[in-house]
Amino acid sequence: MTDYIAKAQARRAKRDAAIPAEYLVDLSAAGVPALPEESLPLPYSKTQPHHPEPTTIYPRDNVLSVPSKVLSMEDVAITETPLDKLLSLLATGKLSSVRCTEAFLRRAVLSHQLTNCATDFFPDLALTRAKECDDYLAKHGKPIGLLHGLPVSLKDQFHIKGTNATMGYVSGIGNIADQNSVITDVILSAGGVLYVRTSVPQSLMRCETHNHIYGRTVSPFNRSFTSGGSSGGEGALVGMHGSPLGLGTDIGGSVRVPSAFNGLWGMRPSMHRVPYEGAANSFLGQESVSSVIGPLTHSLEGVVTFMRAVLAARPWELDPILVSMPFNEEAFALKNLQLKAGSAEPAEAFDSKSQLCFAIEWDDDIVHPHPPITRALREVKEKLLAAGHKVIDWIPYDHLRCYDIIGRIYSADGGEDIKRSCEAGGEPVMYNLMSDGKPPKHLSTYESWQVNREKNQYRKEYLDYWQATKDKTGTGRPVDGIIAPVSNWASCKHDLNDHVSYTTQWNLLDRPCVVFPVGFVDPEKDPRVSLDKPYTALPDNVDQVYWDRYDPQEWAGQPINLQVVGKRLQEEELLGLAKVIRDAGATVN
């Protein structure tokens, strides 16, 4: 047996041994097909770099209803309680953290059995911590913090002292953390309970969650479809209600795509607001476009609570690259958008009759979104207009140029970081940015500087382009936010999701984004239509290939999500805009 395969099997066995036997469910008795086991080494497609064919047949079934059939009614009720209500129950002692944690542990294990989403379970650690939370509340009569007693799941990048986060690399097996990541400490200081860690793709540089240690994570909506990546383990777990709040990371869409593909709310904050210090990561030292930490959850309240809890911990005192910016409640209330005439003084409050102007990005001039995405954009536009807001079209500003720049930033090392990490574990490199068989060009220091100059020039041009919309909005301000697709499709079959221009655009510009659920694919509303003028920006007829893959019956029931994009470092204002969209009735939860 190949050494890396034996190491991977041993690591999986260690994960499985940590699961209490009483938490496991006999899926065959429940009539649910087991996931297939892929043999290693995995086959790789290098002949079709932009659209490889799927390699393994997975069950085409929706497993979201399974928990209600096999878990207790109480466990189901606890795990499906809205996060804001759940936190209230925990903070007042009406629900103990121990009982809440037990329920989420059981549902997380079931979620993993159904989607293969987890890398680690920490039942003893979690229940000990939950009891600490209950004891603190009983002794002091108040909660520890904003996340008091709440189970929180972590992507397999975040260290918990004494445990092993592999980051999807065989070379990461056995690296026991001697301290927590800063975000881990922040969650604990807010009263959170850590109980499970979730899977990622090898290298983190793929929107499909698949690695040689843990295999492939699948979508709970259709297990023949991807849950996205690189936070696809979090997406599947939270999508299954196996976690009320999950932490992922995003360097090119890795929080937003799994949020979208699993029907969740999610957020990509600007760089330097949420602490990344002490977390495992690919491309350490690459600072041109940095990865950021963001939440995945079932509600806008969950996203807001995450940001409030993190910033309340004053994380800039723990991570040296963060900006010192507490949570701005006035910006969340959108008071800064309601200036009194001729004055810099804000109005007392923003109300539903106050007019905003949103822009709709119908496509990015690179790849057309599938019909369900376009329908969702139309419906959101109609809801916002009915609520009294203005909506204009957003004409993409040279998005292909952005896609080219960020691609050269990602691959500036010629694939060296990924290559070394794989060689250290003796494993082959899986499908990612090197998958066409030719390593990308290794840029010299000077060449990297020039790419950064191009990035900064593009950012300036885009800022000017945004600011110039002041003449079109009718509000006296530039566009307040842009509503855009998260992806060209509402998930897809495994091994196909390799186009990310709808998300990387905002990483290069460092614009915060909030993902929100709009609805589900309906074959009657979203029929297949011909594509009149395919874009030719990318080689191999990529736009037409992606378009032709759409089958309304195959996609039926898949969640449809969009993203709203805001101003850099204005996360609170963006969350306020997301609330306006939600309050206009444009979201499904």
UniProtKB/TrEMBL annotation:
It is an enzyme of class 3 (hydrolase). It catalyses: a monocarboxylic acid amide + H2O = a monocarboxylate + NH4(+). Its EC number is 3.5.1.4. Keywords: Hydrolase. InterPro entries: Amidase_CS (IPR020556), Amidase_dom (IPR023631), AS_sf (IPR036928). One of its GO terms (molecular function) is amidase activity. It comes from the Eukaryota. Substrate binds at residues 204, 230, 251-254. Coiled coil: none annotated. Residues 100-575 form the Amidase domain. Transmembrane segments: none annotated. The active site is at residues 155, 230, 254. PROSITE patterns: AMIDASES (PS00571). Belongs to the amidase family. This is amidase. It comes from Sporisorium scitamineum.
